Amino acid sequence: xxxxxxxxxxxxxxxxxxxxxxxxxxxxxxxxxxxxxxxxxxxxxxxxxxxxxxxxxxxxxxxxxxxxx
Length: 69
What we know:
This protein has one domain (2-68). By secondary structure, it is an all-alpha fold. The chain is built from 5 helices and no strands.
């Protein structure tokens, strides 16, 4: 049933969760709530900083360092 609800919106529960994690990480970077990318990535469930950086750039078109400005 949950999958059908998300399908109506053109998404899946996993995709939605992934987007929420990336959005939260992006906001945390922009607000400088952490010391740097190596602190933000694991705080949002990413065990590999390189993977996190690629995912963030794919989602928002900016690298973590660009988000931090």
